[in-house]
Amino acid sequence: MSRRIVKQIGLIIVCLMLIIMMWEGQKTDAAVAATAIPEQSIRLRILANSDAPGDQLVKREIRDAVVAQMGEWVAKLENPQSLDEARKVIREHLSEIENRVGEELASRGLNYEYQVELGSVPFPTKLYGGTVYPAGDYEAVRITLGEGKGQNWWCVLFPPLCFIDAGTGDALAKPSTVSAAAAEPGDAEASVQGDTPEARFFLWDMAVKLWSWVTGLFA
Question: Are 47 and 145 in contact (CB under 8 A)?
């Protein structure tokens, strides 16, 4: 195979990689746009006792349990898109959520107090799906564990958007205050924001390496 043909093949591969990168970018933009929080929604906010690894771990365990349970309840609604029905279901099962929180804490030997409530909850400015939402009071289920001074976790409980993990999502948070526990992959494993840069950098690195390989053939 002549060097000219090899060069042409290399250029074709690089072009294909660039096309894939642009396509991935368009998909990402569409996904981010689709994550906008509707006006009629109920949020979930969990405040950890502290930033200690154990407190952050139990926060995530409670998060998983509540989100999974809520998903089952919403699936049984006559009208899964009805905010009123969702609110009614949450109120009816609030004691069950409290019991589940208590069980999770007890199973780990944690005996601090906790509170589960549905109502108007104050939120700081939040970043969600690339959109900044202003600070204010929003309807939400708030779970406060112990002193509630650790990194929080939040998402949109209804409509069910909790598969997009917003982590703290504080648009104005100082980087130095983010704990190692809160920054673990478990808090952002499904985040559009978390996955996108990784994918783009990977594709870009591949394109750079291919181009270097092609140009190296003629060095």
Answer: yes
Token pair for residue 139?
């309807």
> Which range of residues forms the domain containing residue 165?
42-188
126 DSSP β-pair partners? 133, 170
- In the chain, how many H helices and how many E strands? 5, 6
Answering whether pTM is above 0.90, one says no
Confidence of residue 163 (pLDDT cuts 50, 70, 90): very low
* pLDDT tens figures, 90-101: 999 999 999 999
Strands (E), the chain: 42-47, 114-123, 126-128, 131-133, 136-145, 152-158
Measured between alpha carbons, how far is 177 from 113 in angstroms, rounded to an integer?
Answer: 24
**Helix or strand holding residue 203 (H, E):** helix 192-216
**SS3 assignment, position 120:** strand
Residue 180 to residue 39: CA distance in whole angstroms? 33
Are 178 and 86 in a shared domain? yes
